[in-house]
Amino acid sequence: ASGIAVNSLGHCHPKLVNALNRQSRMLWHVSNLYLIKKQEQFASLLCKNSFADKVFFTNSGTESIECGIKIIRGYHSHYKTGKNQIISFNGAFHGRTFGALSAQKNKKYSNGYGPLLSGFKQVEFNNIEKLKKAINKKTAGIIIEPIQGEGGIRPADIKYLRFIRKICNERGILLFLDEVQCGFGRSGKLYSYEWAKIKPDIMAIAKGIGSGFPLGACLSTNKASISMTKGSHGSTYGGNPLAMSVGLEVLKIIS
Question: Quick one: how far is CA 142 from the chain centroid?
Fold first, then answer.
């Protein structure tokens, strides 16, 4: 009924309907080659309410995941660290595009579509010792849902999230949080990572961010997104004026 964890403010919230109607009479779409005022406003508000310095707008959660994977690989390529492996966790769900399928290694979704992309390693969720053993000199990033959705509504232990943040700091690894399902107020805070009092380097959000309108975003620190220069990534519809008008209202109401 909620559109798979999407309609965070119910169906046809009057403020969202009004915002969309107003915008539809002005401008539906313009290329990201132009400055889009509402896009800048929304990005600024997202950064103000999170750890982030930069925002890349998408149309869905899985697009946000793909962007984050590129940020991780691009960061280590920029600094020539030789790191290119990303650790994920059993029970994870990150989407149905190839990067997401390769990261989550869930046969339910990937059977018949192999071979998957290389460079991903999976370990047991909430197991510190297994994670310690999995990390090596090739580990570039760790992707985790603070609360697993498809995995059975399993929260990552707060101590576990703090341990991951600590080891990422020590080993030069980027922490990538998937808050597509558990973000935007679902856990009682705007983002679930806030419970652990940590900050990620990258975060994917979608679903509740648009309350039913197709919208997602990949948030990042300046440091992590150093390789994401003009033309290194793009989206035709990401950050379009219609989506931005809705997203702004949703964030104002929920926050």
Answer: 13
